[in-house]
């Protein structure tokens, strides 16, 4: 049986490595108020000339021409779906005049990631007119960690990391600084890690913003991603890389004031203060921030804000305690206990009257999902079949529609010489979205592989 300390080590390694989270250009400037009238161009696939096994998806904003240099953001999806990543940035790219390039090769666990990044970063300038001083990177989950890696290695101007923090990153030893816009859902199991960036960079001269949305471990909305590109645009003005745009500055300030007032009317004081902090970062060195700072100070002295902060801190302690108990439970508790506990957890998510409490329990459930993934994978690799069966049973209760759960379940059925059931279960994984076919042959017996091939699963994918 794997020890609790070893389980903790496995999880930390998994989260750090395998979760390895506004501009206008030239004549293509689009007014911030005109977003409902945007017209999009096509996303196209580009095969890299130096290595034809590497490719990326390309979005060029309307008005793109080789006669001028354009800012670019390289984007990464944890499953290597470049088009899916580009789709999320298309709105912001068209609104502010950015090129978006999405890797089709970068994905969680890729052993040749450095090669993929090198081929991409070398191919793009040969094919498109890129401003070398305005290259950015962004991504979700493991893709967010790739964005950090790319910025560190290739001196990018800024990053957008979604659903992934920067654990282990030392700003003091980094080769160069880059702007950081970090986003997480309030129900994301990585939420605290993303928000920890505030402390991580608090005593440095790095520019950073942390933003949150009401949701889980998912890509944020295109609108929230557009706020990140807006910040990049405003920072480029501050740095003298592009001309200042007074209209954009004023519209940004007005938008911050409006959204802050809306949050205050709803009694959402933490959201209001977060919006004010973001606004100050947006317009600092462009417009006066004194009024926003005074409003922030006033809000932080009000009972509503103090009560919300106290509630969040109490829930943070409860969350850590629950995580520790559940981690120990993989060794100490049987499936009956887990079944009862998970029913209780789901009920609390559904019935808790307090939003902060519901979000905390949702983060716990997401945390359990990633623990199950990590522990099941590790147990199978170490041929600890009893633990693997236990973990996959818990996994199926936690995330009954997760394709990885059924992939691991199929592997365990195969190891028990139940090939037909293994094939049926693998088909279920595929129907739920399993795509990593490179894992199939190394994971199953010859008998099961023959059955899979006869069912044409691999040919279809």
Number of domains: 2
H/E element string?
HEEEHEHEHEEHHEHHHHHHHHHHHHH
CATH hierarchy class name of the largest domain = Alpha Beta
Number of β-strand runs: 8
What's the number of helices? 19
Helical content stands at 55-70%
Q: Please summarize the sheet with the most strands.
A: 8 strands, mixed
The percent range for strand residues is 5-15%
Shape: globular
* Low-pLDDT stretches: 1-36
How confident is the prediction overall: mean pLDDT?
91
Distance between the termini: 36 Å
CATH superfamily of the largest domain: Alpha/Beta hydrolase fold, catalytic domain
Name the CATH architecture of the largest domain. 3-Layer(aba) Sandwich
CATH topology of the largest domain: Rossmann fold
Describe the protein.
Strand 3, helix 2 and strand 4 form a beta-alpha-beta unit. Helix 2 packs across helix 7. The protein has two domains: 240 residues, Alpha/Beta hydrolase fold, catalytic domain (Rossmann fold, 3-Layer(aba) Sandwich), CATH 3.40.50; 126 residues, Alpha Horseshoe (Serine Threonine Protein Phosphatase 5, Tetratricopeptide repeat). The N terminus is likely disordered. It is built from 19 helices and eight strands. The two termini are 36 Å apart. The chain is 56% helix and 11% strand. It has 461 residues and is an alpha/beta fold. The longest helix has 30 residues. An eight-stranded mixed β-sheet has the order 1-2-4-3-5-6-7-8, sandwiched between helices.
């Amino acid at each position: 049986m794997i020890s609790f300390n070893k389980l903790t080590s496995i999880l930390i390694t998994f989260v750090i490595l395998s979760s390895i989270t506004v501009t206008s250009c030239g004549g293509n400037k689009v007014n911030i108020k005109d977003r409902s009238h945007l017209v999009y161009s096509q996303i196209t696939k580009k095969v890299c000339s130096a290595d034809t096994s590497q490719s990326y998806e390309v979005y060029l904003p309307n008005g793109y021409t080789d006669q001028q240099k354009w800012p670019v953001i390289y984007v990464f999806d944890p499953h290597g779906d470049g088009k899916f990543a580009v789709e999320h940035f298309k709105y912001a790219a068209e609104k502010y005049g950015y090129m978006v390039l999405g890797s089709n090769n970068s994905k969680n666990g890729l052993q040749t990631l450095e090669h993929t990044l090198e081929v991409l970063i070398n191919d793009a300038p040969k094919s498109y007119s890129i401003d070398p001083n305005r290259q950015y990177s962004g991504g979700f989950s493991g893709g967010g960690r790739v964005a950090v890696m790319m910025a560190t290695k290739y001196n990018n101007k800024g990053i957008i990391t979604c659903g992934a923090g920067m654990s282990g990153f030392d700003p003091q030893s980094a080769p160069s600084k880059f702007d950081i816009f970090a986003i997480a859902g309030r129900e994301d199991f990585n939420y605290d890690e993303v928000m920890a960036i505030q402390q991580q960079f608090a005593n440095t001269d790095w520019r950073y913003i942390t933003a949150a949305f009401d949701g889980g471990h998912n890509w944020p909305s295109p609108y929230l991603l557009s706020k990140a590109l807006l910040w990049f645009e405003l920072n480029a003005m501050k740095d003298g890389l592009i001309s200042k745009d007074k209209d954009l500055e004023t519209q940004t300030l007005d938008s911050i004031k409006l959204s802050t007032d809306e949050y205050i009317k709803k009694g959402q004081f933490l959201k209001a203060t977060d919006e004010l902090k973001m606004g100050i970062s947006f317009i600092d060195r462009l417009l006066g921030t004194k009024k926003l700072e005074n409003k922030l100070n006033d809000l932080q002295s009000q009972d509503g804000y103090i009560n919300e902060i106290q509630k969040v801190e109490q829930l943070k302690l409860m969350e850590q305690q629950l995580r520790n108990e559940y981690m120990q439970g993989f060794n100490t508790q049987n499936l009956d206990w887990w079944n009862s506990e998970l029913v209780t957890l789901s009920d609390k998510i559904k019935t808790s009257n307090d939003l902060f409490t519901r979000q905390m329990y949702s983060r716990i459930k997401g945390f359990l999902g990633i623990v199950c993934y990590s522990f099941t994978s590790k147990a199978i690799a170490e041929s600890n079949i009893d633990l693997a069966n236990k973990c996959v049973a818990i996994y199926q209760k936690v995330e009954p529609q997760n394709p990885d759960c059924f992939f691991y379940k199929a592997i365990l059925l195969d190891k028990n010489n139940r090939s037909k059931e293994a094939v049926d279960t693998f088909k279920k994984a595929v129907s739920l979205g399993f795509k990593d076919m490179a894992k199939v042959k190394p994971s199953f017996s010859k008998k099961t592989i023959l059955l899979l091939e006869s069912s044409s699963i691999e040919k279809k994918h």
